[in-house]
Every structure is written in C-alpha cells, then in structure tokens.
Design brief:
This protein is mostly beta strands. The chain is about 5% helix and about 45% strand. Strand 35 and strand 36 form a beta hairpin.
C-alpha cells in the first residue's frame, strides 16, 4: 500500500508541467475584462478594458490608479503616439483622445454600428478598423474621420502602421489586408489559413500575426508569402508583443492561460506556465525581463523570470516549412460586378478556380491553367451575371482543395 501511494505521488509530480516562471497575480479589485496595454516614454503604462476601465501605473506595476476618460463603453484598443497623446477606441464607434494638455476629448467615429480598434500612423494621425470591415482614417487627432476603401465586410481585429506608407490589418477567415498608400486603399494577401487572426506586429525584417487554433504566421517579403510557426497549441492567440530592448524577443498570449515566448524573432516558441486558465487579451514584454498578461475577469499577472529556461520548447521548423498553398480572401466582398482573389502554390501544378452557388451548382469558371511555384496568381471573378446571394469560390490543385465565400449584392 505504501509503495502504491508513493508511485501515485511520483506520477502526479511527473505530470505537472515544467515551469521556472514565478507568475503572481496583481489584484485590481475588478472583474471587467482587460484588453490592452501601452507603455509611454516616461515609463508609465496604461491598461484598458470593459465598462470604460482605464488604469495607469509605473514600474513595478503593482499599484494601478483609476483614470476617467468619460465613457462606460467596452474599450478595445490603445495607442500612445507621444508622451501625452493617447488614443483609445471601443464599442459603438467610441473614441477618446488625450491631447498635449492631458485632456480627454470625445472623437467618436461617425459609424456607431461597429466596434473599432485603432493603430497609429504618425503623431496626430491614426487608422481605425471595424467589426464590420470598415476602415476610417483621421489626420487631425480624431477631430474628423474619413472612410477608406477596405473592400470587405469581414470583421477586422487588429492593425499596424508607421511613419511610412505600409500598413496591415487582420481579421476573420485568415484575412490579411495591406496598404501601401497610407491607408487609403487595401489589398488582401494570401495568408494560407482560414483561422481568425487577432493581432499583428512588425518584427525585425518582417511582419508577424497570431490567431485562432494556435496560428502563428510570419512574412519577410512584405506579405507575399507567409510561413506558419509551430505553437504546439490549439488555443486562440489574441495578443503579440516584442521587447523594446531586443526586438527578437516575442510574446504571444491567448485563451486558457496560454502564454508563448520566442527568443529568435518568432522562428521557434516555447510554452510558459502562468498557472491559470484565464483567457488573455493583452500581453507585454518589458526591458527588465518583466512580462505582464491580462484578460478576463480583471486578471492581471506578471513574472520577472520570463527569460528562465523552464519553458517547454515546441519548435519544429522543418514541419513549419512544409510545402503547401496560400489563398487570399475575396476582395471586394461583397461584390457588385467584379471581385478578385489570389493564390500561390509551393509546387508547380494545374489549378482550377470555379464558382458554385450554395446548392452546389457550378455557376462559373474563373481560372484553369498551370501555376508556377511561389508566384502569386490574381484571379478575376466576374459576378455581373450572378444574382444577389452567397457563393463558394473553390480553388483546386493537384494536391489541395480550398475555398472562400463570396457575397454578391445588387
């Protein structure tokens, strides 16, 4: 009996995940979901969440003070452009902007039917992407907003921009949009996935995205091709972060207490153990090796041992580089007269692109030819003769079959 009990104790201990990260809970006294962090040049960090939650703290980030921005809306995104300028967006078009006088101003987006996330262009300029596919742009600190050509009604979840013309937006169905004209027009890229994508960030030499089913993708050629990275999880990943001190250090966080860390610019990842099953919506890596993750039920956690070796390694680079195909979203969607999608194959092969109605009847054939490896092929979809409704665009090669939904309006 004693031996059996000893064996059970030993098995229990062996079953526990290896972890050298000492995560601790920072009590905030709230149950609102926390959704975004942003650090300023003076070292202060803002934290936002549901029901108008805004908190601010300085290192070591254990004492968070209340900030009143004049709304009870659920707040979804946060951008700091300078030490004083801060943009916050939320549900139903809510926008609050703090100016150089530290005043919070109402800068709501004209379309209040959507929820918005915001990302920076340059000081005083920002772009907002919506839950109904709308993209708005402001060049005057949010005083006025102009609607841009997104070409989609697909929900958009995150975006990045900078002082240059290039920008990216990600959303449902593996949608990745790119702009090269300061956000005025957007073109879909072939992501190679239909997983919903929830965050995107610039990394050294490229771009990185994260999403449902443990999806991690990176591109080093401006979004022409995307390489999947092994995460060893099926959890939805909702937040990405890089270290300001070393941009090759990355953090990803998501549902079920999932936290992943990379020290080689996202090529390989290891699984951390925060010791909770909370869904995380925000994560940050700070230069002093302090990691913070926040999410549902007001849970805020941090560790100062994020670079320790007690992290379960999950890399499999050869598997990530396996041949395959990539397929963009249909754009614009919905369409009136003509739409476009693009595909890319990693092996030369014959490819057919056909259009079917929801009853499975073929109503059109848009492409049938041999495709070269590694070349993005644009396909025009003529929908002028189609009735209003939903259609399936099927792309079939020698070793794959994939599809996209397309809506036609009149």
């Amino acid at each position: 009996m004693y031996r059996l009990a000893s064996v059970l104790v030993l098995l229990c201990c062996l079953a526990r995940p290896v972890s050298a990260q000492d995560w601790s809970v920072v009590p905030l006294g709230i149950t609102d979901t926390l959704r975004a962090f942003e650090q300023g040049s003076s070292g202060d960090v803002f934290l936002i969440g549901d029901n108008g939650t805004v908190r601010m703290a300085f290192s070591p980030f254990t004492d968070w003070s209340l900030v009143n921005v004049g709304t009870n809306a659920d707040l979804l995104s946060l951008v700091r452009q300078t030490a004083t300028q801060i943009w916050i967006t939320g549900r139903n078009g809510v926008v609050r902007v703090r100016d150089n006088q530290l005043e919070w101003n109402v800068r709501n987006i004209p379309d209040a039917t959507q929820d918005y996330i915001v990302f920076s262009r340059s000081s005083g300029e920002a772009i907002a992407a919506g839950s109904g596919g709308s993209i708005w742009k402001s060049e005057d600190l949010g005083v006025t907003w102009s609607l841009q050509n997104s070409g989609t009604t697909t929900p958009l979840h995150a975006g990045i921009g900078g002082t240059f013309a290039e920008g990216y937006v990600v959303g449902d169905g593996g949608l990745i949009l790119k702009s090269t004209d300061v956000g005025e027009t957007w073109t879909p890229l072939p992501s190679g996935t239909i997983a919903a994508l929830y965050d995107v960030q610039f990394i050294p030499g490229g771009v990185e995205v994260a999403g449902a089913n443990g999806t991690l993708l990176s591109s080093n050629d401006g979004g022409t091709t995307w390489t999947p990275r092994p995460s060893n999880t099926t959890a939805t990943l909702r937040a990405l972060s890089t270290s300001g001190q070393n941009a090759n250090f990355h953090l990803a966080a998501g549902d079920g207490g999932t936290v992943l860390r990379s020290l080689d610019n996202g090529l390989t990842w290891c699984l951390m153990d925060p010791g909770v099953t909370t869904d995380f919506y925000a994560a940050r890596m700070f230069d002093n090796n302090l990691y913070i993750a926040a999410g549902a039920d007001g849970v805020l956690m941090q560790t100062e041992t994020g670079l320790s070796d007690g992290c379960q390694f999950v890399s499999n680079e050869s598997e990530a580089a396996a041949p395959g195909h990539a397929l963009s979203a249909v754009w614009p969607n919905p369409a009136r007269s003509e739409a476009t999608l693009t595909f890319r194959v990693d092996q030369p092969q014959h490819v057919m692109v056909k259009v079917f109605d929801v009853q499975g009847r073929r109503v059109g054939e848009a492409f049938t030819d041999r495709a070269a490896a590694g070349v993005i092929v644009p396909v025009a979809l003529d929908v002028q003769g189609l009735a209003a409704g939903t259609y399936i665009v099927r792309v079939q090669g020698a070793d794959f079959t994939d599809h996209r939904r397309m809506a036609v309006i009149r």
